[in-house]
Fold this sequence. Notes:
There is one protein chain. The chain starts with 15 loop residues before the first strand and ends in a 7-residue tail after the last strand. The protein has one domain: Alpha-Beta Plaits (2-Layer Sandwich), CATH 3.30.70.20. By secondary structure, it is an alpha+beta fold. Helix content is 21%, strand content 14%.
Amino acid sequence: MADVNQKLEKNVQGRYYVTSVCIGCNLCAEIAPENFVENLDEGLYFGHCYVSKQPADKQEEALCLEVMDICPACAIYNDGLKNSN
């Protein structure tokens, strides 16, 4: 089982981040495309998503909170706090 505390290296620095338990469903990138993208590089984390930009306004913040809450793998965190799943 993946370590839920292992942040993916591609995450930009900041409050939100994706961990190695991401299953690559791409839901976060579909809902919050300004903040999450799918890693298309081949290698260890192929098919996983990561935070490409921290939220810059209230709308982006709301979308990041939404995807954190609905992530099926519980792989999205904010300041190290687990989501509500």
